[in-house]
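pls design
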C-alpha cells in the first residue's frame, strides 16, 4: 500500500512540475499600457504688440494636467488642461507707439486642447528588439481653446499649438517629460487688460486676418505621468 501511495504521489508531483514548466509568466516589463495621466509645471510667456520677438521675456508660472492615449509606440494623442499667466510691458519693447504712450499688463489664461504627438523612437520600457527606447524626442501639433477672463473683457479664442518635447521612462510605469510649445491664437486682445489708454489690440490701426497680427503665448513644462490601463494582464488562474 505504501508503495502505491508513493508512486501516486511521485506521479502527481511530476505532472505538477511539468505543467509549471509549461507556464510562461508575463514579465512586468513586457506589459504595454494604453494611457498615461499626470501633471505638468513650468513657465509661460507672451508674444504680441508688446513683445514681437524676445523669447521667455516676463516669464510667469504655468501648470496643469495632461493625459495621453497611445496609438502605438510612435504616436499618441495628448489632452491638456492648463493654467498660464502672461505679462507684457511696452517700455521693454523697441517699438514706438502712438503719442509715445506705454502700457503694461498681466493676466491669466486657461488652455484646453488636444495634440497629436509623434515620437522619433518607439517609446517604452522592456525588450529592445521590439523597438522600445526609454528616451525619445517628439513633435506635437493640434487644436485648443483659450479662455482669458476679465479684467477688461473676457476672451474666448481658438489656439493652434505646435512644439517639441523629450520623454524619458523612469520606470516601467513612470514617465518624465519636458516640452516647449507655441500657442498661436485668433485673438489680438490677450494683451488688453484695460479700457482706456494705450490699447494693444490694434495700436497702429492695422487690421489682420487669420493668424496675422494676432497674439501668441508659449508654455514650457516639465511633467510627470503614470501609465494606466494595460493592454493585457497577467493571468491569475
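designed seq:
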Amino acid at each position: 500500500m505504501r508503495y502505491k501511495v508513493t508512486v501516486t504521489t511521485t506521479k502527481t508531483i511530476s505532472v505538477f512540475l511539468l505543467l509549471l514548466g509549461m507556464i510562461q509568466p508575463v514579465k512586468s516589463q513586457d506589459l504595454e499600457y494604453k494611457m498615461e495621466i499626470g501633471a505638468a509645471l513650468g513657465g509661460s510667456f507672451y508674444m504680441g504688440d508688446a513683445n514681437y520677438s524676445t523669447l521667455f521675456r516676463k516669464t510667469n508660472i504655468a501648470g496643469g494636467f495632461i493625459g495621453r492615449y497611445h496609438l502605438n509606440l510612435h504616436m499618441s494623442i495628448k489632452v491638456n488642461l492648463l493654467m498660464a499667466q502672461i505679462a507684457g510691458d511696452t517700455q521693454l519693447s523697441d517699438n514706438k507707439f502712438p503719442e509715445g504712450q506705454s502700457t503694461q499688463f498681466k493676466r491669466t489664461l486657461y488652455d484646453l486642447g488636444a495634440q497629436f504627438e509623434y515620437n522619433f523612437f518607439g517609446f517604452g520600457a522592456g525588450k529592445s528588439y521590439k523597438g522600445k527606447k526609454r528616451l525619445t524626442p517628439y513633435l506635437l501639433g493640434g487644436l485648443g481653446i483659450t479662455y482669458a477672463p476679465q479684467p477688461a473683457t473676457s476672451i474666448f479664442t481658438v489656439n493652434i499649438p505646435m512644439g517639441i518635447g523629450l520623454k524619458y521612462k523612469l520606470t516601467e510605469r513612470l514617465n518624465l517629460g519636458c516640452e516647449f510649445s507655441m500657442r498661436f491664437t485668433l485673438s489680438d486682445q490677450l494683451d488688453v487688460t484695460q479700457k482706456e489708454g494705450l490699447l494693444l489690440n490694434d495700436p497702429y490701426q492695422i487690421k489682420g486676418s487669420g493668424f496675422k497680427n494676432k497674439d501668441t503665448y508659449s508654455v514650457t513644462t516639465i511633467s510627470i505621468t503614470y501609465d494606466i490601463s494595460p493592454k493585457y494582464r497577467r493571468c491569475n488562474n
